[in-house]
């Protein structure tokens, strides 16, 4: 018999997670993150803080040693990636994962391999082609001929084939120039507009917080500060510690080529004193 579903305002919840690799010290030490439906939540923090590890726990790639993973209030702790995908959690891994020698269409349709019904695959393909126009335009091109930003959109499109309810994005702007980064973040907003929640990890923290609804600052394996992304951007102490020391841009201007990534200065000496999480 399946467990009764508790009513929850959150689509995805990580609650008191402790996780690490092998015998090494724990990376996550009591971390909690909540993702409401159709919301972009961004994790920022120094290199090695455990941001990618959070995504691996959320997608079932790494089993936590303690704590719970909940989807729609239902406990899915310990479930593997396939099971998490089947309840609507899709993970777009760091780096580029398109098959360069295959067409855009083949790459995207691979994302629907778990869908049994051919008509459902065709319907979803139409939906993702609408969300990502470049995917529709380059449908029959070899994926390897696309630019880095276009390839990232192919990866997004592939992840949306199964109609996930939350997509975990690990460093989507990695290796992209500022223009392509802008395009990719615009597409992240389109995913939200299409009703998909996003849990985002990004080196370019300032740019990511301009797109996100909620920001979470990770340090020492926990969420130290959580709040509306715009408020985090405007916080001078946070800017100094985690966002490369530049004052927040009141206009929400996309980051320019001179913008320093969040972690350029490495781990700060002290975390901010007051935890709002
Ligand atoms: N597969 C692995 N095996 C062993 N240790 C790992 C593995 N992956 C990550 N780690 C370690 O876990 C810690 C957290 O890594 P993680 O990649 O989650 O951090 P991050 O905040 O995403 O860092 P970055 O901003 O540099 O990508 C680091 O100390 C890292 O060396």
What order do the strands of the largest sheet run in, or round the barrel if closed? Answer: 6-7-8-3-9-10
Number of DSSP helical runs: 10
Strand content: 15-25%
DSSP E strands, number: 10
Q: What is the rounded Rg?
A: 18 Å
The pLDDT mean sits at 84
> What is the level-2 CATH architecture name?
3-Layer(aba) Sandwich
**Sheet with the most strands?**
6 strands, mixed
Q: What is the number of domains?
A: 1
Ligand roster = adenosine-5'-triphosphate
Gross geometry: globular
Protein name: Branched-chain amino acid transport system ATP-binding protein
Domain ABC transporter: 12-245
Keywords: Amino-acid transport, ATP-binding, Nucleotide-binding, Transport
GO molecular function: ATP binding; ATP hydrolysis activity; branched-chain amino acid transmembrane transporter activity
């Amino acid at each position: 018999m399946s467990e009764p579903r508790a009513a929850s305002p959150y689509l995805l919840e990580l609650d008191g997670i402790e996780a690490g690799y092998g015998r090494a010290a724990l990376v996550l030490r009591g971390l909690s993150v909540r993702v409401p439906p159709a919301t972009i939540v961004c994790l920022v923090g120094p290199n090695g803080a455990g941001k990618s590890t959070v995504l691996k726990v959320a997608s079932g790639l790494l089993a936590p040693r303690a704590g719970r993973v909940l989807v729609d209030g239902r406990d899915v702790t310990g479930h593997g990636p396939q099971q998490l995908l089947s309840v609507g959690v899709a993970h777009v891994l760091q780096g580029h994962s398109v098959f360069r020698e295959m067409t855009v269409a083949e790459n995207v349709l691979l994302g629907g391999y778990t869908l049994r019904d051919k008509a459902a695959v065709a319907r979803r393909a139409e939906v993702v082609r609408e969300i990502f126009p470049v995917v529709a335009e380059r449908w029959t091109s070899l994926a390897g001929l696309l630019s880095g930003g276009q390839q990232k959109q192919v990866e997004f499109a592939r992840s949306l084939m199964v109609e996930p309810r939350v997509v975990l994005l690990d460093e989507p702007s990695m290796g992209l120039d500022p223009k392509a980064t802008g395009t990719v973040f615009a597409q992240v907003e389109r995913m939200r507009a299409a009703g998909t929640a996003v849990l985002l990890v990004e080196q370019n923290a300032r740019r990511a917080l301009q797109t996100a609804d909620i920001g979470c600052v990770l340090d020492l394996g926990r969420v130290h500060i959580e709040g509306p992304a715009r408020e985090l951007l405007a916080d001078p102490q946070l800017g100094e510690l985690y966002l490369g020391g530049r004052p927040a841009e009141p206009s929400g201007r996309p980051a320019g080529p001179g913008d320093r990534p969040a972690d350029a200065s490495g781990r700060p000496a002290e975390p901010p004193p007051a935890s709002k999480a």
